[in-house]
Amino acid sequence: MSRLIRAVIDTNALRHNLSVIRARARGAKVIAVVKANAYGHGLVSAALALQGADAYAVARLEEALALRAAGIGTRILLLQGVFTAAQLEDAAHERLDLVVHDASQIELLERTGGADRFAVWIKIDSGMHRLGFAPEEFAAALTRLRRLTPAPSELRLMTHLACANERDEPVTRAQLQRFRDATRGLDYEISIANSAGLFGEVALGCHWVRPGIALYGASPFTDCSAASLGLEPVMTLTSSVIALRRVPRGDSVGYGGAWAAPRESLVAIVAAGYGDGVHRSLVSGTPVLVGGQRAALAGRVSMDMLAVDVTGLENVQVGTPVVLWGAGLPVDEVAHHAGTIAYELLCGISQRVPLELK
What pLDDT is stored for residue 2 in this prediction? Predict the structure, then answer.
């Protein structure tokens, strides 16, 4: 009972998911995306479990520095690149690959020099309109990078898909065509596929794939489960019952009286709340596993606790284990009840929830 709530991280499931992705990648190299604390799973521990990957990807310099400080020497791709001379020097010192997506980043390399210290990935905006050179700007950007003296040690090309999670989405085909039109005649390695692109219907033809959510055992699609893709859940968010309450028919539970007992009910109070990262947007009826049995959330999630209707369940008592999502209860299913996606639930785990490696 000393750890009422914890996130149990199954490192064997991480390795299994990587093997499924490798098979799906059909010979392409795998960049394991471990940004945002490895989607809430623990940056360093997840990276160590994923040492079979060919590279890692992070969003920000600080994440890359933490990996290097942990002794991880594998290639690391800095997805947002760098923006100052000091950051550029840190990236060079730590042997990071740079994504270049803006003219100001090329100017920084021109002004600072030493581009030969980097493998540079040029990002093309094929339609997401977030980061990257517009197709009509790409040729000029490539020319500037080629003219750097000394030149980058390697040049690669990449783009990012906006709607790959919608299966055979015409937007994906249009993005792919824009990318191909912009890069026609060039002989560079490319990276396009995220998790959805990797498992989707549109053939992308990558040299490098960049899986994120699939590594952690969640589905990038709304129309199929992670299990149907051969993926296993990595995080199980588990807690315990800390109290039981008999609630008369018609009486309400929790803030705002959002749930009223439809009959004389037994309600379990669980040590888990939005202070731990369990979304307040989860509605009554959201599934919860109590002692391995399905039950339903009753009322609003509060900061440190939530209530579950356990009427009719067997052997529920103080100390009974509770699973909020993970083994036996897919995080995708829970996210649906919160009106969000698995990414947000996993990344939202708060610092007060200890990670326990399995």
Answer: 62
- Whether the predicted model's global pTM rises above the 0.90 cut: yes
What mean pLDDT is reported for the chain? Answer: 96
CATH domain 11-221 topology: TIM Barrel (3.20.20)
Class for the domain spanning 235-357: mainly beta
Q: Where in the chain is the domain with CATH 2.40.37.10?
A: 235-357
Question: Cα(133)–Cα(131) distance, rounded to whole angstroms?
Answer: 7
Q: Which one of the listed residues 29, 56, 255, 274 is annotated catalytic?
A: 255
Pick the catalytic residue: 35, 56, 123, 343? 35
- The whole-angstrom separation of Cα 124 and Cα 101 is 7
Tens-digit pLDDT profile for residues 255-292: 999 999 999 999 999 999 999 999 999 999 999 999 99
DSSP assignment of 147-208: T-SSPPSEEEEE---SSGGGSS-HHHHHHHHHHHHHHTT----EE---HHHHHSSS----SE
Q: What is the rounded end-to-end Cα distance, in angstroms, of the chain?
A: 18
**What six digits make up the tokens of 182?**
């912009």
35 is catalytic: yes
Distance between CA atoms of 217 and 228, rounded to whole angstroms? 11
- List all residues 6 or more positions away from 273 whose beta carbon is below 8 Å from its beta carbon: 301, 302, 303, 304, 305, 306
The mean per-residue pLDDT over the stretch 208-225 comes to 96
Query: Distance between alpha carbon 60 and the CA centroid of its chain, in Å?
Result: 15
User: What is the per-residue pLDDT for 167?
Assistant: 75
Tell me the per-residue pLDDT of 126-181, one tens digit each, with 9 for 90 and over: 999 999 999 999 999 999 999 999 999 999 999 999 999 887 789 999 999 999 99
> Rounded mean pLDDT of 103-110?
97
Spatial distance between the Cα atoms of 216 and 89, rounded to a whole number of angstroms: 32
